[in-house]
Amino acid sequence: MKRFFEKTRLNPDTGCIEWTAGKLEKGYGQFCLNGKTVRAHRFAWEQVHGRIPKGLQVMHKCDNPACVNIDHLAIGKNRTNCIDAVLKGRHGTAVLTPDQALAIMESKLPPKATAKALGIDVRLVRNVLEKRSWKTLKPGRVPLSKRKYRPINPNGFPTPTEGKHDD
């Protein structure tokens, strides 16, 4: 562990312990251990809590992919991580809001006209229409941005409240 922490530094403004060695394109720390590439935040989690159960992932509450501070990490399902990403505006398709994606799905206009009306590139419209992005969003559903949320655990990751949204 000493060698691991030699490759980190404390960010006094955020409390993040940031990985300073090798990083992936999106900023996640990585290193080689026994001939295998390991993500730094997952390694840190496993040193304290043991193996990550199948189907779960280690998420950053601080939204800093380089952070390996155990207090900034939580474990959860991919869906929980995606909801958190959308709400915080860091989803991979966050160029579009959930409301815009729904508008595209429900639009009667051709893709070029929809793109022009929304002020976005036509490729974003086609990605939604061809279900390459926003696959889980369904027309007629209340968009994520308008749902009520409550924390599901002390880690602070949100989940939709039970029942329908009141407008």
Description:
This protein has 167 residues and is of the alpha+beta class. It has a domain at 2-76: Homing Intron 3 (I-Ppo) Encoded Endonuclease, Chain A (Alpha-Beta Complex). Helix content is 29%, strand content 17%. The chain contains 6 helices and 8 strands; from the N terminus they run αββββαββααααββ. It has helices spanning 2-5, 40-49, 78-87, 98-106, 111-118, 122-129; strands at residues 8-10, 17-19, 30-33, 36-39, 57-60, 73-76, 149-151, 158-160. The strands form 4 sheets. The protein has a two-stranded antiparallel ribbon. Strands 3-4 form a two-stranded antiparallel sheet. Strand 1 and strand 2 (17-19) form a beta hairpin. Helix 5 crosses helix 6 (122-129).
Number of separate helices = 6
> Roughly what fraction of the amino acids lie in strands?
15-25%
Structural class: alpha+beta
- Based on the structure given, which CATH architecture of one domain is correct? Alpha-Beta Complex
Percent in helix:
25-40%
Uncertain residue ranges? 150-167
Distance between the termini: 51 Å
Strand order of the largest sheet: 1-2
Describe the protein's topology:
Elements: H1 2-5, E1 8-10, E2 17-19, E3 30-33, E4 36-39, H2 40-49, E5 57-60, E6 73-76, H3 78-87, H4 98-106, H5 111-118, H6 122-129, E7 149-151, E8 158-160
Antiparallel strand pairs: 1-2, 3-4, 5-6, 7-8
Helix pairs in contact: 5-6
Nutshell version of this structure?
This protein has 167 residues and is an alpha+beta fold.
Descriptive key words:
17% strand, two-stranded antiparallel ribbon, 167 residues, disordered C terminus, alpha+beta, Homing Intron 3 (I-Ppo) Encoded Endonuclease, Chain A
